[in-house]
Design goal:
Blueprint (H helix, E strand, L loop, with lengths): L2 E5 L5 E5 L4 E8 L5 E3 L20 E2 L5 E2 L3 E4 L2 E4 L8 E2 L12 E5 L2 E8 L10 E9 L4 E10 L3 E2 L3 E2 L16 E4 L1 E7 L5 E7 L11 E2 H5 L11 E6 L8 E7 L5 E7 L3 E5 L15 E5 L14 E2 L4 E12 L3
Length: 324
């Protein structure tokens, strides 16, 4: 395993581990200029080998769940690893979070490459993936994904970082969130989409303006989860192809995190099932990705990748300081 650090001219930096092409740290300033790490990490690189919370990792081949661990493509049904009850999650037992990527530094970027063989996790196609991290002087982290397959397949990659903008705080319950979405996906007790796309208005999923996570959680009526494991459908992309998906802020530190991506939406996970080194609600994930279980819902945006075509997606995390 190798650890690469990208430092900007202001002294802020991010660190990325080759195992899982994992974001290990994002050390950025608060309102007073104090540099602190705002993503959850493990004490040592070796701890990531036993990780089952996907801490900061690249997840795929298919981020989030596929119902019944099966899908049909071109008239053929593919049966996947059942690593989440009867369902498949984050690519199965040998997802990208479990691969030690080859890596190199080039022009201020960290570039990670890996291969997933045909049939791995049950997915079709020999898949090649390249993940590029870049960190600007404006404290913006860009993660770019480039994939190709020799057979038609489905793909859906994202980063699974848990953010806590005030490392001194034990939870993110006092963080305030805004999500730029009019709709969210209804899900069942196994966190699988029912297929219904519901309006956020006048619901516990309405983050159209900044709202405190802990307060909104008390409004929910989901007995199987206290917090959120919810996908929000993004609004149309701008001319640059990016959607402004979400913004997270924390008052004590003054830090602000803005998330934009080419993906059609974002999944909010409040870390309810964190354990071991980190307790529940110690961090929140804002995972820009395609719709969960998209292969089994024809009315969802497709996650299919044609053979020998290139898949490209990009996520941007911009760290700043909120206006008083």
């Amino acid at each position: 395993m190798l650890l690469l650090r990208l430092t900007n001219r202001n002294g802020a930096y991010v660190e990325v581990l080759s195992y899982g092409a994992t974001l290990v740290s994002a050390v950025v300033p608060d309102r007073y200029g104090c540099l602190e790490n705002v993503v959850l990490r493990y004490p040592s690189a070796q701890d990531y080998l036993a990780d089952d919370c996907y801490l900061g990792s690249t997840v795929g081949r298919f981020a989030n769940r596929i119902a019944g661990a099966a899908f049909t493509l071109n008239g053929k049904t593919f049966f996947l690893d059942k690593n989440d009850g009867e369902n498949s999650n984050h690519g199965g037992f040998a997802g990208f979070n479990k691969k030690d990527f080859s890596c190199k530094a080039d022009k201020g970027c960290a570039i990670f490459s890996a291969h997933s063989a045909h049939g791995e996790g049950g997915f079709p196609g020999n898949l090649s993936v390249e993940v590029t991290y870049a960190f600007s002087d404006a404290n913006e982290l860009r993660i770019a994904y480039r994939l190709t397959s020799d057979s038609d397949t489905v793909v859906n990659l994202t980063n699974h970082a848990y953010f806590n903008l005030c490392p001194r705080a034990k939870t993110i319950l006092d963080h305030e969130l805004m999500v730029n979405a009019e709709n969210y996906l209804e899900s069942n007790e196994r966190f699988l989409p029912t297929g219904a796309i519901l309006p956020v208005a006048r619901s516990a999923f309405d983050f159209s303006c900044y709202k405190r996570l802990g307060e909104m959680m008390r409004r929910k009526r989901e007995p199987h989860i206290r917090g959120y494991n919810t996908y929000f459908a993004g609004k149309p992309a701008g001319k640059d192809g990016l959607r402004q998906l979400a913004s997270l802020r924390e008052s004590a530190s003054g830090r602000l995190l803005e998330v934009s991506a080419t993906a059609p939406g974002v999944l909010l996970y409040t870390g309810d099932y964190l354990h071991g080194a980190h307790q529940p609600f110690a961090g929140a994930c804002l995972e820009a990705q395609g719709y969960p279980d998209a292969p089994n819902h024809p009315h969802f945006p497709s996650c299919a990748l044609k053979a020998n075509r290139e898949y490209r997606q990009e996520i941007r995390y911009r760290f700043g300081v909120a206006a008083d």
